Amino acid sequence: MTNTAAPEIRASACPHDCPSTCALEIERLNSRQIGRVRGAENNSYTAGVICAKVARYAERTHHPDRLMHPMRRIGEKGSGAWQQISWDDALDEVAEAFLKREAQYGSETIWPYYYAGTMGLVQRDGINRLRHVKKYSEQKLTICTTLARGGWMAGTGSLHGPDPREMAKSDLVVIWGTNAVHTQVNVMTHATRARKDRSAKIVVIDTYRNATAQTADLHLCVNPGTDGALACAVMHVLFKEGMADRAYMEKFTKGWKELEAHLQDKTPDWAAAITGLTPEEIYAFARLYGQTKKSFLRLGYGFARSQNGPVNMHAASCLAAVTGSWQYEGGGAMHNNGGIYHWDKTLIEGLDAIDPAIRTLDMSRIGPVLTGDKTDLGDGPPVTGLLIQNTNPMDVAPELGKVHAGFARDDLFVCVHEQFMTETAKMADILLPATTFVEHDDLYQAGGQSHIMMGPKIIDPLGECRSNHGVISGLAKRLGAEHRGFDMTAMEMIDETLKVSGWPDAETLTEKKWHDCMIDFDSAHYLNGFAHSDRKFHFTPDWSKIGADYEGMPALPDHWEAIFVADAEHPFRMVTAPARNFLNTSFTATPTSLKREKRPTVKIHSQDAAAIGTEDGAIVRIGNRLGSLLIHAEIFDGLNPGTVIVESVWPGKFFIEKVGINLLVSAKAPKPNGGAAFHDTAVWIRPEADASD
Ligand SMILES: Nc1nc2c(c(=O)[nH]1)N[C@H]1C(S)=C(S)[C@@H](COP(=O)(O)OP(=O)(O)OC[C@H]3O[C@@H](n4cnc5c(=O)[nH]c(N)nc54)[C@H](O)[C@@H]3O)O[C@H]1N2
Ligand SMILES: Nc1nc2c(c(=O)[nH]1)N[C@H]1C(S)=C(S)[C@@H](COP(=O)(O)OP(=O)(O)OC[C@H]3O[C@@H](n4cnc5c(=O)[nH]c(N)nc54)[C@H](O)[C@@H]3O)O[C@H]1N2
Ligand code: SF4
Ligand SMILES: [Mo]
Predict the structure, then answer these.
(1) Transmembrane stretches, by residue range (predicted)?
(2) Most CB atoms closer than 10 Å: which of 27, 244, 269, 375?
């Protein structure tokens, strides 16, 4: 008999590392199977729109390659020979290996390593409770937001901006260094509403004519790492042509007179030579921006993923303070709203157990750390034990040569808890199967908008999968770690965290599905003052407040040439921008995503291709002092000659020589506070025939 009843629909939130954090409606076909996934129509930010990769989430949750059972490595590291074991045996072996190493080297030899595979507060951050109680090495979370956030905080002093739904009320939306069509599709929902309802213009500032740029009224195609120069020239024009709001600046900003003087020679001609734009393009954008009161800067992460990224982010954020567009609905600048949530994460993260004497390791420098770099390890022991959840460093971290060498160390014990056989999972000694978000309870917070959301368990865990909370609690018992969080259920942790943070409790939030935490208009627009102690926006940033390594940073917005500039040996600047159908390396196993992305390529301008003697579809060798790899060339004229794009993050196994593009990305920690400069790489490119020299 066919069951014709409509499937039951359950509410959830997208757990992935994406600023949109969409409110979802998920078909529950039975206790072990989901069907279609849609965006919630009645969530005012999601507005019924989600990306294609999550709409077909059943492909991921029910993928035949999902890890289903705990496994022990039986062959050489990385050989792929496994033996299925019980959960008890697996957790016992991990605990035994860690305790042995702790006894020999001290607790800092163990490094719990995680990132944001799920953004759920309990399942993502619970690993820190184990870390703190056990005095394991601390982790500096630099791989994603550090560069952009530092630059934003330097000017405004707080991680928030106007309600992103206000974009629909703007007359000009500037999408700067974020490929929103790929990476946070809901920005486009609100920006295109403004276009439809009020004939607003959309400007995209990006290093290539990506899917977002293709929708724009004006695309400023800049050379990578040169947004500071563009911002300065735009401000030069704003001051020169009477579009700067001096009354606003006098009241709300610090350093505007120095800025005006400093910008005297930062002309569009000057910036054109640096950015690859024409002076006319810069004038056109400056006038459009300066003459539109309701202009909204949507500042992404991408343009800050360079060593000068914080300076460029700060410079871009200055535009709104020069024109005073902050005063208007639909005006101002927004990067991320993380600062509006007043979480008390003591219970989840075990903040009551922190020992400040424990060393901190920089996650972006996992390659140097695992290969024993003394500048990273300090006086502490080598890392001999890793517990990995929610991240795939064998593909996503910089300087993969060192990362791979580190993971291959025989004395390094690695436990990986994963949903799929990633390149990192392949290097595990003990590999544990993880639930997907529909199989566990969690609580989510949006960065690119303003909701907190419930994501209750919808189906039972598949196979023998366990949640991160389950694994952490199971290990804690065996490691002698005591904290009341280890004895609670995920839902109990959610409920208590919500209550102590001043939000609706778990039952209420489950019923409401989400809660809008947006702050009032004046606070969001900094009309009561900016968040520094002098209540001003800082044109002259105090970089020492952002990070200790601030020496040599410019005192005012500028083009700061602290990037890997192209030279005779490395004539190309490479950007590794996100692919549409992947999310970092998540979704690189799902068939539709793979079919759409086809294979790794390097997008190269036809002039450059002709100059080096290659053609569309040919294999080239691309490299620098960190290494080299073979990749297919794709002729693409939507970028400046000298720039190349490798859309990412393709796992190493899809490359001809089985190592991914981050082989060529440096792990050098940028000023002032570290980070990962994924879009700041100088490379040479040669046709394959020459590759053997
Ligand atoms: N070349 C290049 N490299 C980059 C970037 C780039 O733009 N270019 N971007 C960088 C950025 S911004 C980031 S944030 C990093 C992110 O890189 P990763 O942290 O590796 O990214 P994700 O793919 O989001 O998540 C990693 C893993 O978490 C797993 N996972 C998901 N949910 C759970 C769960 O509940 N439990 C467990 N145990 N595992 C789970 C997924 O299966 C996935 O394999 O990559 C960086 N690397
Ligand atoms: N489909 C998909 N969605 C994703 C991800 C993914 O991998 N794939 N990753 C997720 C994660 S972890 C994050 S943090 C967000 C990041 O999302 P975004 O804020 O969009 O940041 P990026 O993805 O790093 O880069 C976006 C754009 O910046 C451009 N860019 C690079 N360098 C420069 C520059 O110097 N100047 C300018 N103006 N532009 C530059 C790139 O060409 C790219 O188009 O996206 C999330 N969403
Ligand atoms: S757009 Fe982002 S938050 Fe929304 S469903 Fe896709 S990955 Fe998830
Ligand atoms: Mo990220």
Answers:
(1) none
(2) 244
pTM: 0.98
Backbone torsions φ then ψ of 278, nearest 5 degrees: -90, 155
156 and 225 in one domain?
A: yes
Residue 277 sits in the same domain as residue 361: no
Closest residue by Cα to residue 578 from 185, 48, 186: 185
Tell me the per-residue pLDDT of 300-355, one tens digit each, with 9 for 90 and over. Answer: 999 999 999 999 999 999 999 999 999 999 999 999 999 999 999 999 999 999 99
Q: Does 312 share its domain with 345?
A: no
Are 447 and 13 in contact, with CB atoms under 8 Å apart? no
Q: What is the pLDDT of residue 6?
A: 87
pLDDT at 4: 67
Domain range for 197 is 147-338+522-545
Q: Which residues contact 612 (CB under 8 A, 6 or more apart)?
A: 620, 685, 686, 687
Judgement on whether residues 357 and 429 belong to the same structural domain of the protein? yes
Query: What distance in Å separates the CA atoms of residue 124 and residue 15, rounded to the nearest whole number?
Result: 10
Residues of the chain with pLDDT under 50: 691-693
Phi, psi of 321 (to 5 degrees): -80, -25
Atom of ligand 1 nearest to the CA of 577: 7
Nearest ligand to the CA of 119 is 1
Into how many domains does the chain fold?
3
Query: DSSP secondary structure string, 360-375?
Result: EEEGGGHHHHHTT-HH
Taking the centre of ligand 4 as the mean of its atom positions, its distance from the CA of residue 610, in whole angstroms, is: 35
Same-domain status, 321 and 347: no
**Tens digits of per-residue pLDDT, 478-502?**
999 999 999 999 999 999 999 999 9
Ligand closest to 39 (CA) is: 3
Phi, psi of 583 (to 5 degrees): -135, 100
| CATH number reported for the structural domain that contains residue 648 in this entry | 2.40.40.20
CA angle in degrees (0–180, nearest 5) for 604-607-611: 95
On whether both 333 and 345 belong to a single domain, the answer is no
Do residues 44 and 20 lie in contact, with contact meaning Cβ atoms separated by under 8 Å? no
According to DSSP, residue 72 is labeled E
Copy the structure tokens of residue 6.
């409509």
Based on the fold, state whether residues 275 and 226 are members of the same structural domain. yes
Are the beta carbons of 550 and 219 closer than 8 angstroms?
no
Check which CATH number belongs to the domain holding 89 and give it: 3.40.50.740
Does some domain include residue 556?
A: no
Torsion of CA 669, 674, 678, 684, to 10 degrees: -20
Distance, in Å, from the CA atom of 148 to the CA atom of 493, rounded to the nearest integer, reads 31
Ligand 2 atom nearest residue 648's Cα: 7
Position 5 scores a pLDDT of 78
57 in a structural domain = no
Q: Is 389 in the pocket of ligand 1 (CB under 6 A)?
A: yes
Which CATH number belongs to the domain containing residue 210 in this structure? 3.40.228.10
Question: Rounded to whole angstroms, how far apart are CA atoms 272 and 280?
Answer: 9
DSSP 3-state assignment of 180? helix
How many A from CA of 186 to the centre of ligand 2?
14
- Structural domain contains residue 18: no
Cβ contact 268:299 at 8 Å: no
Residue-level pLDDT at 692: 42
| 376 and 483 co-located in one domain | yes
Residues with CB under 6 A from ligand 3: 14, 16, 18, 20-22, 50-51, 54, 184-185, 583
Assigned domain for 5 exists: no
